[in-house]
Structures are given as C-alpha cells and as structure tokens.
TrEMBL record:
Residues 36-156 form the VTT domain. It comes from Cryptosporangium arvum DSM 44712. Belongs to the DedA family. The chain crosses the membrane at residues 15-37, 58-77, 137-160, 172-191. This is Putative membrane-associated protein.
Length: 252
C-alpha cells in the first residue's frame, strides 16, 4: 500500500474524494474488489486525512455512503442477472454447492451480509450472491446499512489513528479477516452437523427409540389372597374350621 499513498499524495482533495468513492463503490457494485480492494482506498483515505491532505469529517460519510450504495447496486444487479448465471452451463457442475451456499445465505442472510463486509473476498461477491439467491430486500438492506456504516467509518479511522504504520494496520486487518472467516466456518460446520443429525432422526425414528424390554411377570399377591380369604378355601388356608350353622330343631 506504500505505492498507493505515494501515488495519490500530489493529487488535490476533490480528486482524492472522487477516487476513494469510486473505488469503494465499484468494489461491490461491479466486482472491482477482485483487483483493487476498497479497504485499501478507505485506509489510505484515513492516512491522507491524518496528513491534512483531506478532511476526516468528509471522508467518513463519503466512504460509508459509497459502501452502502455499492452493496445495494451489486444486490440489484445480482437479482437481475444472477439467476441466469447460476443456472448457466459454466456452473452446472457446481449445482449442489451453489444450492447449499444459497440455502445458507437465505437462512443466515443478515449475519453473513454484515460479517462479509470485513472479509476481502466475501465483501466483493456477497451482495451479488444475495441478490441472485433471492434474499429479500428487507433482509439485505438493513444488513448492508449496518455493515456499510461500521466498515465505512471504522476503516478510515484505522488509517487515521495509525497513519505512521498503516502497512501494519493492513496486515492486522487481513489476519483478523482470516480469524473471522475461520470462526464463521466452524459455526457453519457445527450447525450443518447438528441439522444432519436431526434429519437422520426424522428419516429413521427407530434409531433413537428405546428397546421395549418385557417386564417380569408380577404375581397378583393381594388379589390372590383376597380370593383365598373370601373363597371356600379360606378356612383351610388359615387353618380354621368353619363352624356349622346351628339349627334349632324342636322335637315334637
């Protein structure tokens, strides 16, 4: 990034503002981030603001608005042209992977959109992928607004605070992005594994059903005793002879 700072040092403030806005906007709107990340432009803008070449109060809202506008444009373009690309011959062999990625984006759309703003590659492709996969606009726009504000204000501030060591800031941001990406992958893997288990249980409910073990026969002691006591063998069982009825027979 040193050569970028040296290249734009002699430019006037209006030109610098226009360049920063154009790069940040085009990163997600037309996939310029594949070649020139908008994060570089945002950090350089903060460095130039620390050197008093441009105003930080102007840079912060410009970068945030450009980021939100770029994400929204990429989302609309993905909604218009994305389905034809996803269903084309070039990606036919990746149909299963695309379906899984699309389902993940639909389930966790807002979280993925906000988090992707801080990851170099995902920041470029997520808006178009969200539009192509059918993510509702009411889900995408608030997430893009939140991510754009956080990233659009935070990136220039990092460059402004660490103007003397902006190359270290860029390295730290790259490492942080990798850590965030790893955490997202682990969380996605855990959720996927849990849902697979639930799907297997739903398909084969007998796998988790406890085995019915026949209970040992229970001798009805009480009822048997009652029958013995009440029946004709009560006297025998108790060792008592039932007395005979006395009948008064009067002799004539």
């Amino acid at each position: 990034m040193d050569w970028v700072v040296e290249l734009v040092t002699d430019l006037r403030a209006p030109v610098l503002y226009a360049l920063v806005v154009a790069v940040v906007f085009a990163e997600t709107a037309v996939l310029l981030g594949m070649f020139l990340p908008g994060e570089t432009a945002a950090i350089v803008a903060g460095v130039l603001a620390a050197q008093r070449q441009i105003s930080l109060e102007v840079v912060l809202p410009l970068v945030a608005v450009a980021a939100i506008a770029g994400d929204t444009t990429g989302f609309l373009l993905g909604r218009r042209f994305g389905p034809a690309l996803l269903n084309g011959r070039l990606l036919r062999r990746r149909r299963a992977q695309i379906d899984r990625a699309t389902a993940t984006l639909r389930r966790h759309g807002a979280l993925v959109i906000v988090a992707s703003r801080f990851l170099p590659f995902l920041r470029t492709v997520t808006p178009g992928a969200a539009g192509a996969s059918g993510v509702p606009a009411l889900t995408f726009l608030p997430a893009a607004l939140a991510g754009g504000l956080l990233w659009g204000i935070g990136s220039p501030l990092l460059g402004y605070v660490a103007a003397d060591s902006y190359h270290r800031v860029e390295e730290v941001i790259g490492n942080t992005g990798l850590v965030v990406l790893a955490l997202l992958f682990v969380g996605w893997w855990a959720v996927r594994r849990r849902r697979r288990r639930q799907a297997r249980k739903a398909e084969d409910p007998d796998t988790e059903r406890p085995v019915d073990v026949p209970a040992p026969p229970v001798v009805p002691v009480v009822s048997t005793l009652r029958r013995v006591l009440a029946g004709g063998y009560a006297g025998t069982a108790l060792g008592v002879v039932r007395p005979r009825r006395r009948t008064d027979r009067r002799r004539p």
